[in-house]
Write a sequence for this structure.
């Protein structure tokens, strides 16, 4: 979690230099979800995500250098510099795709789970999405399909209470949880504290076990909060769509600080451990930024590659 936090903070510092030009949705405050879940995933399990995907990619083992080069729009980027922050991919780590069309990767993950089942493999397919993504019709079709066919699919909803600047109460019925929607499709569904790494770890373990052993899909509604603006490197308290007290409440529930406190209480983390981690992350991040900035821009002659040919 600390590594992801430091990487996101490096982007916060570097983004205003205008060398990264892609829309970038940071996950500061939400790190416990992918870290607790990924602890149970194998390299050959398949992970999908949406626009806010840095933590998901990194926790699955996605390469940092090619992620940063992608944000810098360089040919050394994981999508060749063509996609930016919202199109991360690292097939060698089993991170198959992220794409910003809300819920767009949910049916793709279900298709991957269907393929896994057809081939009788013991892999799982897992997709991360936000509370807003559950308002897309395809989300409901996908969860239903996974239930009907008892697929090894795992649906991880990061409910951070907002879709851009719209709160839940103007978008979804009062008192109906997203986990209730999963349950209505007969999918095992739980609401958990997404900022509590232990809770995420436990529920993640159970979801992965169920999927791997043929017991079908699980939906986890992980309650969490993004501490920065929807898209970009700044705080956004001045916009007024979130109460200052609410932001403070969630800052106090920061998953990184909570875990640090817990580990120190249990005598599992010392000052020198932390210093060692900080130094190794700082060094790794410096080297990745250097790699990204030294990587050339894609050749304009290749601009149309990988696109549908224009009919003349
Ligand atoms: C189909 C579709 N509609 C609208 C958008 C514009 N859009 C981008 S992010 C976003 C909010 C998403 O909210 P949520 O799913 O809760 O994820 P969060 O940003 O909170 O992590 C919207 C509406 C989009 N990308 N795709
Ligand atoms: Mg949201």
């Amino acid at each position: 979690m600390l590594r992801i936090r430091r990487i996101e903070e490096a982007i916060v510092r570097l983004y205003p230099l205008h060398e990264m030009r892609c829309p970038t949705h940071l996950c500061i405050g939400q790190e416990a979800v992918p870290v607790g879940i990924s602890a149970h995933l194998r390299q050959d399990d398949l992970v999908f995500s949406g626009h806010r995907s840095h933590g998901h990619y990194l926790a699955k083992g996605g390469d940092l250098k090619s992620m940063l080069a992608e944000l810098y729009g360089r040919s050394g980027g994981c999508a060749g510099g063509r996609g930016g922050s919202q199109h991360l991919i690292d097939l060698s780590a089993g991170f198959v795709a992220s794409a910003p069309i809300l819920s767009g990767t949910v049916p793709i993950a279900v298709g991957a789970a269907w393929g896994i089942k057809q081939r009788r493999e013991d892999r799982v397919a897992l997709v991360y999405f936000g509370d807003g993504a559950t308002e897309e019709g395809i989300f409901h079709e996908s969860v239903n399909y996974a239930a009907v066919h008892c697929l090894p699919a795992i649906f991880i909803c990061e409910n951070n209470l907002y879709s851009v600047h719209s709160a839940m109460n103007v978008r979804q019925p009062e008192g109906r949880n997203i986990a209730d929607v999963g349950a209505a499709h007969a999918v095992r569904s739980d609401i958990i504290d997404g900022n509590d790494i232990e809770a995420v770890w436990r529920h993640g373990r159970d979801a992965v076990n169920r999927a791997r052993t043929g017991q079908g899909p699980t939906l986890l509604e992980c309650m969490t909060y993004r501490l920065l603006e929807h898209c970009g490197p700044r705080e956004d308290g001045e916009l007024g769509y979130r109460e200052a007290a609410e932001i403070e409440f969630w800052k106090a529930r920061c998953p990184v600080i909570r875990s640090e406190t817990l580990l120190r209480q249990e005598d599992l983390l010392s000052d020198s451990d932390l210093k060692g981690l900080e130094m190794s992350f700082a060094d790794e991040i410096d080297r990745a930024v250097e790699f990204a900035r030294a990587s050339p821009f894609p050749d304009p002659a290749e601009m149309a590659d990988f696109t549908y040919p224009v009919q003349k």
User: Anything to note?
Assistant: The chain has a mean pLDDT of 97.
